[in-house]
Write a structure and sequence with these properties.
Elements (H helix, E strand, L loop, with lengths): L8 E5 L8 H14 L4 E5 L8 H10 L5 E3 L6 H6 L13 E4 L7 E4 L1
Parallel strand pairs: 1-2, 2-3
Antiparallel strand pairs: 4-5
Helix pairs in contact: 1-2
């Protein structure tokens, strides 16, 4: 599965564990995919592979298999994160929202 260079990519880095709440991420990814069908999801961490039956069932149930990329445990996380830095934005009166990856709702604001 290739990701186009101009694609919007949402990343999630966490080992597969109930506290990391991958199911919630997949549910959110499903909703976002309905609004933006071109978006891709890049997930990595220990146990985050296509061999993980529970995770792949959630992905298939959400209908986003062709948009998910499961990379497993990586040693180059700092390189991957460096490519996800938000570009500078001009100051605007209305802030945009960045949501925490935590399973409880924690809103963070940035401008």
């Amino acid at each position: 599965m290739a990701i186009p260079l101009d694609a919007i990519v949402i990343g999630y880095a966490a080992r597969f564990h109930p506290h990391k709440d991958h199911r919630n991420f997949i549910q959110a990814a499903e909703r976002l995919h309905k609004l933006m069908p071109q978006v891709h999801f890049l997930l990595f961490g220990m146990g985050v592979t296509w061999e993980n039956v529970r995770l792949t069932e959630w992905i298939d149930s959400a209908g986003i298999r062709e948009r998910c990329h499961l990379l497993g445990l990586r040693q180059d996380i700092s390189r991957l994160f460096s490519e996800w830095i938000l570009p500078p934005r001009p100051r605007v009166a209305k802030p945009f929202r960045l949501w925490s990856a935590r399973p409880w709702p924690v809103e963070r604001l940035a401008s």
